[in-house]
UniProtKB/TrEMBL annotation:
Protein's UniProt name: HD domain-containing protein
Annotated PANTHER family: METAL DEPENDENT PHOSPHOHYDROLASE (PTHR38659:SF1), METAL-DEPENDENT PHOSPHOHYDROLASE (PTHR38659)
InterPro entries registered for this protein in UniProt: HD_domain
Source organism: Pontibacter oryzae
Pfam family, one: HD
Record-linked SUPFAM superfamilies: HD-domain/PDEase-like (SSF109604)
Amino acid sequence: MTYEEAIAILNSMTTSESLLRHARTVELVMRAYADELAQNELQWGIAGLLHDADYEAYPEQHPHIIVNILRERGEEEVAHAISAHYTKWGVPYNSLLDKALLACDEITGFIVACAQIRPMRLQGLEVKSVLKKLGQKSFAASVDRDEVKIGAELFGVDLSEHIGFIIEVLQAHTQELQLAPQQQQV
């Protein structure tokens, strides 16, 4: 599958600005990890980009629609990773790709939520601040803290280092992600 085909699939089912940004942020983090671990960057990026592609259009069937589309296109590894990106679905974690997607999904969304409430957004965001917010169950309450913990463990990364890695990746794309510091009003 080409990147352009993946974008077309995403755009055919997703219009929400926040969900499109989430897809892009997880894609960026997955690509960075693929590069770091000498994996297939395009494949990992597409897994990140499409993991929630059907969520807006088919919330009750998520992730079955996107998984079936990928399987029909012969993208079994990406389809399996997407089918496993939530532990409560009971799908086994067979590959590093499966574990990486699980590890990157919830925490990347959480880090973006942390950045959005700060005037400086991602600039200067520290790991300790994210960890502190993780302890506040009322903040970004929809983020499953167990998934964050289990994901890091399965992927074999220290949670603090993982958060730091993700922050660095996202900081390199602050303008695109609209997470640059807010302009002062004069």
